[in-house]
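<goal> How does this chain fold?
<body> The protein record starts here
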Amino acid sequence: MTTFADKPWEHLEALIEAGRVKDLLDFFESLSPQETALVLSRLDEGDRTTLLTLLSPNDAADLIEDISDEQAALILGELPASDAGRIADELPSEQVVDVLGELDTSEAEEILQSMPADSAEVARTSLNYPKDTAGNLMIADFLAYQEDTSIGEVNRDLQDNQEVYRTYNIQYIYVVDSKNCLVGVMRIHDLLFSSHTSLLRDVMIRNPYRVSADAALDEVSEEFSQHSLLALPVVDSDNALLGIVLPLAVEEAKSKRTVKHFLWLSGIIGGEEFRSMPLVKRSGRRLSWLTLNIVLNIIAASVIALYQDTLAAAITLAVFLPMVSDMSGCSGNQAVAVSLRELALGLLRPGEILRVAFKESTLGLINGIVLGILLGFVAYLWKGNLFLSLVIGAALAGNTLVAVTFGGMLPLVLKKLKIDPALVSSPLLTTVTDMCGFFLVLSLASAVLPRISG
């Protein structure tokens, strides 16, 4: 027998239909964040809208905080902008940016326009920066005082505004000049154990570490790794203090990027996909990748069409075509992985293409010869035809050399072109190894066709 414990969303649907707000709050209080995400995903759009309308903006925001930014964006996008704005205003400022960043620009702007002007402006400032930059990751909840402020004045301000500052993640106090330019930083320890009459300029650490608002995620992460900071100030081109980035935000952004790369490599583009999303939207996201693959596969298959007479005369070659392309592709992906890793660690620069080409071509030559001998030997054992084994072995050796060299260089070329190499390398490498592998096998076979077509 099915119980509400088996399908808790059915119990939730009953509570929504009855409009019992207190029971709804008690129900969600009993769930873990994972269970909350599950039951919300099983509701239809109408029930989700009714649920968030029944709850107060603060309670709805508490619910939104328990789920992923992508799912939260999906749910807020279903609401009227005015309702979504009231809920977004109750979220932590950094989560507002993360959630609205998952929406289309027009949808996000509608919600921002329905929020209070000060909250909207803070979120809009971060959203104006590209994703995975310091400006996009920064938060505005920090403490900054002018350099001629005394320790006593800072302490009084902290006491007078303790209810506001209680929600801040305060690791440092920043010191600015009259133009809001960052000039120093002060540890909480210095605040507690300095004379009340001391000025901040006399206590602060001058020229603190900082990053520009357009600094990329990897650059920000490197700053945290090198200096063991608890927060990092973000400045504009004039050194004006804009916000701070916390280590947790950097780790979360890196985790999201990893997930996005995985989805891209799996053929899901345009962000995460949930089965609760509209069918047309899900279909469009998948088709955008699949249609591209049709084009790439047509390009690779066109090589076979040029040599269809050769293939018809020696049908055995059809067995070895996918083996040559797949084995070469594996070798090429190894080279891609090494280049991506060295780029991420700073051990390789995008301009070192010739160095990588030399290193990989020598390795590709050795591995290609070894693999070519092995596969050629297999071909000889199967068919007893020396010329067939030489064709297959030579094709695999040559294609491995091409795949390894091209795979090593490809991430560097894409990086110089400001294209994410993790997203594009795999499909391009697959197309090249297929085309080259088919061409080598069929062209070499054509040269000795009478010897292998018997």
About this structure: The mean pLDDT is 86. The first helix runs from residue 8 to 18. The chain is about 70% helix and 5% strand.
